[in-house]
Structure formats: C-alpha cells, structure tokens
C-alpha cells in the first residue's frame, strides 16, 4: 500500500487542497491529486505563501524547492507528510507565575526561510523606492511615503517616541531601519542622533544617501543577531516589525543591554498572529517578550494596536486593488504581487499587535 492511500494522506490532502484552491484562486473541486501548482497558475510569491501556510496551518516546515520538485498535489502532500515539524513551542508564564499560554514559533528563522526572506527584502529595497505607484501606496496606507515595509503608521511611531522620551543629545538605534526614512523622521521629531541598521545592502545604500545631508544620521549593514557596537553606545533602541528575525529574543535583549547605556530604554512594536496562540487566554503580559522585558529591564508599558493592525491589512488590500493598473503601467507587476500577496494573506488572519516600551528598574 502506498502512503497516498492512507488516512494520513487523505487528512493532509484535505487540509492542503483548499489552501491551493485559495492561492490559485480557483474552486476546491478543480484541485485534484495530479494538479500541478505552477501549471495551474502558481508563481514564486504564491509558492512562498503556500509554504508559509503549511507552516502556520499544519505546523510543517517545507522549503520552497520542495514544491518545485514536487509540483503536483499528490507529490507535495507526500512531501509534507515526511517533513519536519516547523514549530517549536514556548510555554509562557503570567507575571504571578500561575497561568501559562502557549506560543507556537513559526520557524521564521530556519535557514531556508531566512534565506528566502532576505532575498525578498533585497528585491523589495532594490525596487520599491523608485516606483511612483508604491509611493502612492505608502502615502495612502501610512499617511506619508517613507518606503515603509512594516505596519507602523505615524500615530504608532509618535506614540512610541512619546513613551521613550528621546531628545536632542540622545543616540537611538533603529534596528531594521529599511530605507532609513523612519530613522530620519525620528531624528527630526526628537532632535536625537539615530543610527540605523538593516541586513539589506540595497536599503542601507539608499539610507547612507540620506545621512550625507544630515549629521544626526548614520547607517550600517548589520545583522540584528550580531550587533557590533561598543558597549554603552545607545540611550534608546527602537525596533519596528523586525524582532521576528531574532532566533533568540533573550540573546537579542541581552545584547541591547550591552550596547545600551545604564538607563537604556527600548521600544518594540510587533504583531502576534492569533493562530499561533491559545487565543482565549492570550495576554501580552504572558508573551516571551514581556517576560524577558520584566526580567532584564524591570518592566514595560504596552499599547494595544490590535484593532489598528487588522484594519491596516484590509486597507493595504483595498489601496493595492485601486493601484493595480498604476503598478502595471510602470512595469512593476512583481512589486505589486510582492505587496499584494502578503497583504491578502495577513488580512485573512486576526492578529494582536502591541507596542512594548521598557521601563528601566
Ligand atoms: C518588516 S520590515 C520593517 C522595516 C521598517 N522598520 C519599517 O517599519 O518599515 C523588517 C526589516 O528587517 C530587516 N531585517 C530582516 N532580518 C534582519 C536581520 N537579521 N538583521 C537586521 N535587519 C533585518 C529587513 O531587511 C527589513 O528592513
């Protein structure tokens, strides 16, 4: 008996076929064991979404090349059945130690996921800044075009700066700064010096152009997981939608303490997809991040941005729908797909989003 006649296969195929149908924009009944993902209209971005969905929905880690080598539904399902579990689980404790909640980590930092992601960021930063349609997209979604890739609008950034209380003479690290335009905004708003770091060479090349005309700014390509600044460099560290890419939050926050001054303040904005949690008992105070901020920094304040987050993705889809023709007229269909695929996926999941600002003990 082959694996494809077992109950296990039927169950996996029953879960995977509807995801194919959704991503290929077709009916469930059109997906058969011999359907070829790419022949049926799949491309690199939908393939990426598929492996992400397989990780989040089925808890299985499947590299992109597995789909290329196993493009039919039957072959892909067989591959998924043999694949490793994608998710590690962390048990999280309430401040009083009494209750736990479970977070399934999404395998963001497995080597294949990391490599794919870094390539996609590089593609994005090499192309987005020169697209007028993309500038219009950012203006409509965020209120102003700063080439944003994260989810924070100016309301969120301003609230973070208020809570952080940064001022002239301070030195702020903007971790995951992208094009550096948010770093520039932070410098203008606070008068502080801002050092931006990002893994993307294209992003930092653009950012270094900004620094040429503003002494308060400087930018470097650095990996968040290997920050090489001297001890005591920063009075503040901000990170918008980037800490997902640190395999060990504890190591990252410890490193923050080393490169920060004694009264370092940290502002982190991040999203928690609800599907990764036991949602009925979920609380930001029981997340791994909260636990570590209590342990290492003595506490934190939070701002609940969840409602804004869910509206944000829907708005992105709506704005992109209205700009599809503009992207196409520029020959920027791939950039459009890049943003659309992510927005359509995220708009379909409920998310928590919180800002955490540490309070030094
Ligand atoms: C979702 S974007 C957010 C960018 C920006 N903060 C914003 O809000 O628009 C995540 C950023 O993290 C950067 N990044 C990803 N992995 C990284 C790493 N290991 N070290 C430093 N930056 C990283 C990406 O290049 C990207 O610019």
Automatic annotation (TrEMBL):
Carrier domain span: 7-84
Protein name per UniProt: Cyclopropane fatty-acyl-phospholipid synthase-like methyltransferase
InterPro entries: ACP-like_sf, Methyltransf_25, PKS_PP-bd, PP-bd_ACP, Ppantetheine_attach_site, SAM-dependent_MTases_sf
PANTHER family according to UniProt: PHOSPHOETHANOLAMINE METHYLTRANSFERASE, PHOSPHOETHANOLAMINE METHYLTRANSFERASE ISOFORM X1
Superkingdom of the source species: Bacteria
Pathway the protein acts in: Lipid metabolism; Phospholipid metabolism
Catalysed reactions listed for this entry: phosphoethanolamine + S-adenosyl-L-methionine = N-methylethanolamine phosphate + S-adenosyl-L-homocysteine + H(+)
Organismal lineage: Bacteria, Bacillati, Actinomycetota, Actinomycetes, Pseudonocardiales
Swiss-Prot/TrEMBL GO biological process terms: methylation
SMART domains: PKS_PP (SM00823)
UniProt KW keywords: Methyltransferase, Phosphopantetheine, Phosphoprotein, Transferase
Gene3D superfamilies noted in UniProt: ACP-like (1.10.1200.10), Vaccinia Virus protein VP39 (3.40.50.150)
GO MF terms held by the record: phosphoethanolamine N-methyltransferase activity; phosphopantetheine binding
